[in-house]
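User: Quick sanity check before I run a bigger batch. Here is a single chain. Can you write out its predicted 3D structure?
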Amino acid sequence: MTYQKFLFAFAALTITAASFAAVSTPAYSKGPITVVADPDIVTRRIGYADLNLASAAGERTLNRRVGNGIESLCLEATGDDGRYWSPNYMLCRSSAWRQARPQIANASQRARDMALTGTSTIAAAAITIDLSR
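Assistant: Done. Predicted structure follows.
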């Protein structure tokens, strides 16, 4: 079990670092962007462009969407058959929420900045969660 925790933590850190690097890449960079899919990585992207994250209702809706995405992601990543409280599922869920929470906070902060000043230094993006199978 300790090895699995280490593996999930390492995968989460690696993917989070890669996500920050990808988000910080300028939009005007030269050359096409190439995405290589790894069959051992399960990914969920949760969009929120239709939500007003400056409101409590918008934030609740985003958290609900992320929760549903995490449930789907972890069922696929763990190969679980619906036993939501299995140790592997719970470990997956915990790791996924650790990835999602900072992204949710950034999205909400961006929305508040935009509501107050009309601009934000935080780039708009979808919530992305990646985990190893």
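DSSP finds three helices and two strands in the chain.

User: Great, the batch can go ahead then.
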